[in-house]
Specification:
This protein is α+β, with helices and mostly antiparallel strands. The chain has one domain (3-54, 101-213): 3-Layer(aba) Sandwich (Glutaredoxin), CATH 3.40.30.10. The protein has 9 helices and 7 strands. The strands form 2 sheets. Strands 1, 2, 5, 6 and 7 form a 5-stranded mixed sheet that branches. α1 (16-31) packs across α9, α4 runs antiparallel to α5 (118-131) and α6 packs antiparallel against α7.
Length: 221
Amino acid sequence: MAVRMKIDFVSDVSCPWCAIGLQSLEAALEKLRGDIEADLHFQPFELNPDMGRGGESILEHLAGKYGSTPDQLERSQEMIRARGAELGFVFDMHKRTHIYNTFDAHRLLHWAEEEGRQRALKHALFTAYFTEGRDPSDHDVLIDLATRVGLDAERARQILAADEFANEVRDRERFYLEHGIRAVPAVVINDRHLIEGGQPAKVFEQALRQLATAGTGSPAA
């Protein structure tokens, strides 16, 4: 009988290692199909909550934040591109030139969870930003992505035009910060066990299998 596990994937839309981590986690869950049944929830985390409209060039941002040089950025981007390619995810570094505010994207993801479309929207946001170079803070982009995954465009427009789900998103962000999450992706299993970083699929598979063997989780109905 499959073991049911609650998995909270704490991440940001603009985090490349989060895109890698999700691909790896899903590959692991596919390997564990029949043994583990996952209830996957996407939780908000903003790497740059103070980012203004229009965003900032990646080179300028990383130089200011970490002191990264153009050569270091190029090597890092190539490593990320290669890891993504191994997992079937395309990072187009020529199109992804800026880092943007992601708060509104997290508000739509919160709503999408209520509508049963959160996972689809998360994938759409990662592809739009990392593969297509689109701005995840642009409301037209967000409405388009919501529509593509089967959400109501007019409802998405209403949410974005107001402050709906702002408090809920901030409460969840605060919860994870207060529980020690300082970097993402952070994968929390059944509210107790933490796997950090964009790990290879084999690491997720081994960890989940060990937790299932140890009796973590509950029998799937």
